Amino acid sequence: MVNTILSIALGIMLLSIILSLIRFVKGPCYTDRVIAFDVMTISSLAIIAGVAYLTGRIIYLDIAMVYGILSFIGVLIVARYLEKGL
Amino acid sequence: MEILAIIGAFITLIGSIFLLLGSIGLLRMPDCFNRIQAGTKASTLGTILSFTGILLIMPGWWGKLLILIISVIITNPVSSHVLARASHYIKVPLTKATLVNKYEEDEKYIPVEDQKTEEE
């Protein structure tokens, strides 16, 4: 029961990643691409947490932490570059 | 214990639906600022709901999941604000349905570092 509902939830998250990939490809301005990348990363954080339950390994949550921090720093660096601060 | 796990699974399902709504808003919104608004807020709520559902399913993992929830709450609005500020700085065009734009009167928008150099 729980595994079935979690598998459906993981499928919906994967669909949201695919939908934001379309915006990542055809976005007209720079910040569209950056925000699509941010949404893709945030969705994959939730996917990693679901996979960590389905395989029963707590060590995958560490990967989610490092991935979230790397995404945050990447967005900050791109925004700083657009403001001509780098 | 079993009922708590099923409630957690449904909360994770609601969170994934919020993530899907966020990416649909990312596709359909007409403007760059609207896309920032739709994408970031909905994805923040969806991720927090997903982590809360996993927390209800596996209560032994509360430490790392709490750290993840707090880091998402702190870092995601900050990145949204930084992106909105940068896209205002590079003068991204607004949509035609805009009614009020207070920054249009503000032609002399100068960031803080340039003000110092002009005074010297």
Please write out the topology.
The complex is a heterodimer of chains A (86) and B (120).
Chain A: H1 2-26, H2 30-55, H3 60-82
Helix pairs in contact in A: 1-2, 2-3
Chain B: H1 2-28, H2 32-57, H3 62-89, H4 112-119
Helix pairs in contact in B: 1-2, 2-3
Structural features, described:
The complex is a heterodimer of chains A (86) and B (120). Chain A is an all-alpha fold. Chain A has one domain. Chain A contains three helices and no strands. Chain A has helices spanning 2-26, 30-55, 60-82. Chain B has one domain. In chain B, 74% of the residues lie in helices and 0% in strands. Chain B has four helices and no strands. At the A-B interface, α1, α2 and α3 of A face α1, α2 and α3 of B.
- If helices are DSSP runs of H or I spanning 4 or more residues, what is the number of helices of chain A? 3
Number of domains of chain A: 1
N→C terminal distance of chain B: 68 Å
Ranges of chain B where pLDDT stays below 50 over 5 or more residues in a row are none
Share in helix of chain A:
over 70%
Total helical elements of chain B: 4
- Reading the helices and strands of chain B in chain order gives HHHH
Order of helices and strands of chain A: HHH
β-strand amount of chain A: under 5%
Inertia-based shape of chain B = elongated
Q: Compute the CA-based radius of gyration of chain A.
A: 15 Å
Q: Spans of chain A of 5+ residues with little confidence (pLDDT < 50)?
A: none
Residue share in helix of chain B: over 70%
The largest chain-to-chain contact, stated as pair and per-chain residue counts, equals: A-B, 49 and 52 residues
